[in-house]
Amino acid sequence: MLRYLNGGESHGKYLLAILEGVPAGLPLTADSVNHDLARRQKGYGRGGRMRVEEDRVEFGCGVRKGKTLGNPIGLLIANKDWENWKEVMAVEPGPVPPEKVVTRPRPGHADLVGAIKYGHRDIRNVLEKASARETAIRVAIGGVTKALLAQFGMRVISYTIEIGGVVARRCEDPLEAYERAEGSEVRSPDPEAGAQMIERIRTAKHRGDTLGGVFEVVVTNPPIGLGSYAQWDRRLSARLAMAAMSIQAMKGVEIGMGFGAARRFGSEVHDEIYYDRDEHRFIRKTNNAGGLEGGITNGEPIVLRVAMKPISTLYSPKKSVDIQTKEPFDATVERSDICTVPAAGVVGEAVVAFEMANAMIEKFGGDSLEEMKRNYDAYRAYVQSF
Known about the structure:
This protein is 31% helix and 20% strand.
């Protein structure tokens, strides 16, 4: 089983994680992970924090001479902004400067509910961990699991398909869509829609407003048989949906045709089954199911679309109430973005990659990459002979 715990505050000293279950012998370097960390920080509409941080991962344990040891892997990302927050975020006992105590919750954030739940009278104790800054360490974890999936010919990619109501034209080849998107400031595979998205973000900024949107995550070349119908919590569709919804500010997820399937006849939805005698495999000529049937992969690309709400912090603040005085006020502004949908897609890749790698390890086991590959090859031979 693959699992991790992460910790760290937005303006604390660092973000960290322990990742357990990666087989021994996996080639792994910080550079491959740092590539995705850099992608997460890009995108038109990002705020000032992205000009402060330059995220880079450090492997503290579990890797030697460029290969995993089979031990837990320690990951650390330093927060450069810590230098400006040493007094406020100090670990040592002592009072917080009164002017730095946060008592005014922002609508749309975890501020108020988190303060009530944990009994905090300084809301900074909530917002520091609830912050999307946490996604940096999850992208690093995703980078490790992407390296494992690549050993089996699998890729996890994403691109923006909608921002603020502007919808990109469909590109049928996900790899082509991804390549186009990587050259776009908003990660759109459609240049015309991308230009309109940028203009929409610019308009929102001038209004002191924010924008959300939708991104698509695709897993290429998954084998048949990951996940299970035998128990509800082993369905890979459910696990992927949960992973997507665990990202801050996500409000919806659909797989394959998704909600569109609810508006059509069954004859327009279900993917017919064919057999390719040359390649000795079962295939579908359509992929309305998004690569998952009964909670199990069917060999077609896995396709998820995830809806992100507009960023909660507005430069034209909404109304709220001070938790101490109970007096109304206009919500305060922490340094904020206007739109983070392009970056959210990169985070989406990471959480999906983790779940896919976990499903691969469950199915093919192995304490080492070599053993896992033997199990995988034997299974592929079985599938071809079925």
